[in-house]
């Protein structure tokens, strides 16, 4: 059973990555924040009796379910919006806001870099995030869980509710797509 401190530490450590994952999926920062908060609340309320080692996998599955629930609700809402869309024009004053620009990946190695290195790394991160957001949903989920959340193939398969072979295929396709897209931009890793 995870202690209250272990649960709190886990939620603090996963918060930004979960938010990025939700933003990639739903492309709406407010909805992504709601999804992450709902997932955290459900983990704390329903699964706090689990051992600390199980929390990452359980949270990932809860987060994925919340994202899928959001899409189901959007489908219903969009049907109503379509019906009423002819009644007036919708105006968005803050269309160019990008929540990913507000987040920065913690990296202790940046402390000793000069300005040009930081700028280059920032541009590389932006290019990578842009290309990740263009991946198909299942490839993006598998890639983020495996390489950003550092889940094992087995845990990723459980979280995605698919076979380990499917996870390997999705990850392989995602890395090939990303490498090709970044190469076209003149970036080689």
Overall form: globular
The first-to-last residue Cα distance is: 41 Å
Rounded mean pLDDT score = 81
Structural class: mainly alpha
Radius of gyration: 19 Å
Low-confidence stretches: 84-91
Order of helices and strands: HHHHHHHH
Question: How many beta-strand elements?
Answer: 0
Total count of helical runs of at least 4 residues: 8
Largest sheet: none
Strand fraction band? under 5%
Share of helix, binned: over 70%
Protein model, in words:
The chain has about 190 residues and is an all-alpha fold. Helices cover about 70% and strands about 0% of the residues. Helix 3 packs parallel to helix 7 (about 155-160). The protein is globular. The N and C termini lie far apart (about 40 Å). The relative contact order is 0.11.
Quick description:
With 189 residues, this protein is an all-alpha fold. The protein has helices at residues 4-26, 29-46, 55-84, 99-102, 115-134, 137-148, 153-160, 164-184.
Topology:
Blueprint: H1 4-26, H2 29-46, H3 55-84, H4 99-102, H5 115-134, H6 137-148, H7 153-160, H8 164-184
Fill in the keyword field for this structure.
single chain; 189 residues; mainly alpha; 8 helices; globular
């Amino acid at each position: 059973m995870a202690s209250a401190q272990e649960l709190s530490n886990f939620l603090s450590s996963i918060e930004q990555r979960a938010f990025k994952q939700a933003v990639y999926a739903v492309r709406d920062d407010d909805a992504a924040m709601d999804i992450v908060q709902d997932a955290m609340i459900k983990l704390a309320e329903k699964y706090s009796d689990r051992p600390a080692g199980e929390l990452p996998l359980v949270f990932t599955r809860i987060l994925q379910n919340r994202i899928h629930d959001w899409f189901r609700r959007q489908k219903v809402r969009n049907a109503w919006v379509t019906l009423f869309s002819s009644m007036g024009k919708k105006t968005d004053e803050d269309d160019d806001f990008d929540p990913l620009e507000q987040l920065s990946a913690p990296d202790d190695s940046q402390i000793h870099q000069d300005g040009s290195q930081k700028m280059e790394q920032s541009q590389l991160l932006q290019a990578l995030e842009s290309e990740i957001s263009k991946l198909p949903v299942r490839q993006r989920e598998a890639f983020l869980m495996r390489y950003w959340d550092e889940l094992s193939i087995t845990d990723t398969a459980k979280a995605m509710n698919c076979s380990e072979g499917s996870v390997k295929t999705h990850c392989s396709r995602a890395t090939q797509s990303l490498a090709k897209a970044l190469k076209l931009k003149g970036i080689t890793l």
